[in-house]
Amino acid sequence: MRLQALTLALLFCGPLLNGQQADRVPEDVSIDSKQAWKQLAGNVLNDQKHVIAFPWQLVRHGNHWKATLVLSAATAGLIALDAHDAPYFRRTGRFDEFNEIASATNTAGLLIAVPVADYAWSAQTRNTYGKQTVFLAVEAMADAQIAAFGLQMVTRRLRPADVAPYGDFGNTWFRADPLARKSFPSGHAITAFALADVFSERYASHRWVPWVAYGLAGTIAFSRITTQGHFPSDVVAGAALGTILSHYLVLHHHAH
Questions:
Q1: At the N or C end, where does the chain have fewer CB atoms within 10 A?
Q2: Which domain holds residue 6?
């Protein structure tokens, strides 16, 4: 919930949407530009229309049904293994030092710091392309967090850390309090991979960028398992959804 609050605060600290949604990234992205904030909010709202329409498109036209079935089957398989995988990470002390560094707060701060640092550098060097990349990154973060929040409210899955000692790790669905932290999918993983996809595709000419971006995203995602914040299936589903949202929704519809 901390990451969701930070992302939504970053998104909506600008003016509220009061106009038509533009069809492309602004020519000049600035945190002081009311038009840029309006367009960002409009893009995010427009993205949600596509998300909501996806099940209808899948049923009516069969678009992406093969990929959907593969992802669903993989997620179902991982869910079946969660009850066997999760107890290991509760018992082991192998990741204690790693967990101190890669805590939920630290990794959330890193996810916010990356686009902020890129914007600061791009603004300093007057790099319009870099600032537009940050615009798309924030849009991807917002879409990812909205998707994560919606799915978490529907599934209400307990987090591994919330399962009682010697409790049943296989009975976690629809049990979390609506106001408590929930598990499926991982908000950190969905956001990390959404950002990784944006930066990897926008800076594809720099071959090291995808390695660093997805390396950091994978590390953040793994930390959610070792800290007992999420089950492995939560993380894998979040990583897949983040990449899909970023690639097919944000970049496909808005990048030029």
A1: C
A2: 2-12+31-254
- Domain count along the chain: 1
H or E segment and range at residue 179: none
Classify residue 22: in a domain, yes or no.
no
pLDDT digits (tens, 9 = 90+) for 51-66: 888 777 766 666 678 8
Q: How far apart are CA 42 and CA 49, in angstroms?
A: 11
The span from the CA of 114 to the CA of 16, in Å, is 25
Smallest CA-to-CA distance from 112 within 12, 215, 193, 6 is with 6
The secondary element (H helix, E strand) that includes residue 205 is none
Q: Encoding tokens for residue 3?
A: 């990451």
Contacts of 70 (CB under 8 A, 6+ apart): none
Question: In 3D, which of 226, 172, 196 has the Cα closest to residue 110?
Answer: 196
Question: Is there a contact between 184 and 147 (Cβ–Cβ < 8 Å)?
Answer: no
Does the pTM exceed 0.85? yes
Sequence-ordered list of residues with C-beta below 8 angstroms from that of 227, at least 6 positions apart, any chain: 95, 99, 102, 103, 104, 161
Domain of 175, CATH number, reads 1.20.144
Task: Look at the alpha carbons of 114, 115, 116, 118 in this order and tell me if their dihedral is positive or negative.
Answer: positive
Q: What is the DSSP letter of 161?
A: G
Q: 26 is written with which tokens?
A: 């602004």
Which position has the higher pLDDT, 32 or 242?
A: 242
DSSP code for 18: -
